Amino acid sequence: MDNQGLSRDQVVAQRQKFGENRLPDREKKSSLKLIVTILTEPMIFLLLAVVVLYFFLGDWRETVVLALSVVGVVVLEFYQDTKTERALEALRSLSAPQCEVLRGGEYVTIPSTEVVVSDILVVNEGDRVAADGELIESTGVSANESILTGESVVVEKNIDDKVYSGTV
């Protein structure tokens, strides 16, 4: 490989332009705040208004059925939102703590958060990929992408194929 990797100045410029190699921290919502957010969604708000309308019209059966349906939707949405939040936390924890990159003609080990766009990562068998990228050189590479796809079968990779952060 002829490439020498990024120079120190290029690394600084890339970091200023694109930021660090990490998922942004998200504000954790309390359960109560999440439920309030769900209840104030336009569709839920409309359904609750219809529940109130049925109540004042004296249609108890429709009131109860629709109210229970709204409760079911809120519970499902709450479950989905908390499940999504747990999945994002798991992704954050799965990033490789350190990785090897080629910079200025030398191989150096750096924290994975310091990887920048256009870095050349060196990934060996069993290593977790520190950032999304493209293979520029490979010999019999395969990747376990089950974290992304749920499939347990490894995927064969060739030059110019994409590799994804967190895969092995």
How does this structure look, described?
- With 168 residues, the chain is of the alpha+beta class.
- The chain folds into two domains: 31-94; 97-163, Distorted Sandwich (Calcium-transporting ATPase, cytoplasmic transduction domain A).
- Helices cover 45% and strands 15% of the residues.
- It is built from five helices and seven strands, in the order H-H-H-H-E-E-E-E-E-H-E-E.
- It has helices at 8-18, 31-39, 42-57, 60-94, 146-149; strands at residues 98-103, 106-111, 120-122, 133-134, 141-143, 155-157, 162-163.
- The strands form three sheets. It has a three-stranded antiparallel sheet with strand order 2-1-3, with no helix packed on it. Strands 4-7 form a two-stranded antiparallel sheet. Strands 5-6 form a two-stranded antiparallel sheet.
- Helix 2 packs across helix 4 (60-94) and helix 3 runs antiparallel to helix 4.
- The longest helix has 35 residues, at 60-94.
- 11% of the residues are buried.
Features:
elongated; 168 residues; 7 strands; 2 domains; 45% helix; 5 helices
Summed up:
The chain is α+β, with helices and mostly antiparallel strands. It has helices at residues 8-18, 31-39, 42-57, 60-94, 146-149; strands at 98-103, 106-111, 120-122, 133-134, 141-143, 155-157, 162-163.
User: What's the mean pLDDT score?
Assistant: 87
Q: Main beta sheet, described? A: 3 strands, antiparallel
Radius of gyration, whole Å: 24 Å
Helix content: 40-55%
Q: Count of DSSP E strands?
A: 7
Helix and strand element order:
HHHHEEEEEHEE
General shape: elongated
In the CATH hierarchy, what is the superfamily of the largest domain? Answer: Calcium-transporting ATPase, cytoplasmic transduction domain A
Helix count equals 5
